[in-house]
Amino acid sequence: MLGRDHALSGAVAMAALAPVLHVTQAHLAAAVVLTAGAGVLPDIDHPDSTIARSFGFLTEWFAWVVDRLSGGHRHGTHSLLGIAVFTAGAYGAGLYQLSEPKSLAAGHLEFSWHIVPATVILALLYSSALRALKIGGHYADLIGIAGALVTCFTGADLTLLTAGSWHLPLLAVATALGCAAHIAGDELTHGGCPLFWPVSMHEFHLLPRPMQITTAKLCETWVVFPFLLVGLAAAVWHATGHPLSVPRPAK
Ligand SMILES: [Zn+2]
């Protein structure tokens, strides 16, 4: 799947689940864009991917390292273990940020090393979402860094989302959801994903072979992309408190 459609699938997943996760309207835009960024995160195992090129040689070098560690493209980062590692990284960055209470005091803009890991992850996710969706052009990275600083200094990335009896910070939920959406997207293609890597290399598919899609071909352009756009519009409409169906007139 193309980076654009991976980012959109992450955005759709977050917008659709926002009411269930109790995402407030104030945090909806950040949550949707961060999940769009996490939607391209598993492709950090490929030096030519959108996300690998987001911060030049820094992210290209990181992608090279991930490629080696994860057994090559579409292996470790496209597995359940990969989702767990990315989510643990985002969660750990949040814990480190929280361990310096001063960094969360309202209006406190002093630099602290405790916000660095979270800011780096946020900047990476914001800018790769913008790049994948072709928003912001050459300024996508700058907008991503500015968005990351605002999100970190307001503590929005640590906002707890509720799913049943679970309470997890927004950044960790966005990361997990985006990665899961990415893997589901790749499972629609001929390649499939080795969910149980490194235990098993069996590649899982969501569709039978004749229905599997080929990246960047007609089906992705004319079916998957429009479907995701309509899905995103409907999910955001619903998440902002509007009904999806026309209410029946009372008798
Ligand atoms: Zn992929």
Defining traits:
mainly alpha; two-stranded antiparallel sheet; 8 helices; 2 strands; binds zinc ion; 251 residues
What can you tell me about this protein's structure?
The protein is mostly helical. It has one domain (3-239). Helix content is 55%, strand content 3%. Helix 1 (3-21) runs antiparallel to helix 2 (25-38) and helix 2 (25-38) packs across helix 5 (116-132). The longest helix is centred in the C-terminal third of the chain and has 22 residues, at 218-239. It is globular, with a radius of gyration of 18 Å. The model has no long low-confidence stretch (mean pLDDT 90).
A few lines on this structure:
With 251 residues, the chain is mainly alpha-helical. Helices cover 55% and strands 3% of the residues. It contains eight helices and two strands; from the N terminus they run ααααααββαα.
Q: Whole-number average pLDDT? A: 90
Helix content: 40-55%
Helix count equals 8
Structural class: mainly alpha
Radius of gyration, taken over Cα atoms and rounded to an integer in Å: 18 Å
Largest sheet: 2 strands, antiparallel
- Tally the structural domains: 1
Ligands present: zinc ion
Fraction of residues in β-strands: under 5%
Write the H/E string, N to C.
HHHHHHEEHH
Poorly predicted regions: none
Distance between the termini: 48 Å
Number-wise, the strands total 2
Write the layout of secondary structure elements.
Blueprint: H1 3-21, H2 25-38, H3 56-69, H4 80-98, H5 116-132, H6 140-154, E1 160-163, E2 166-169, H7 170-186, H8 218-239
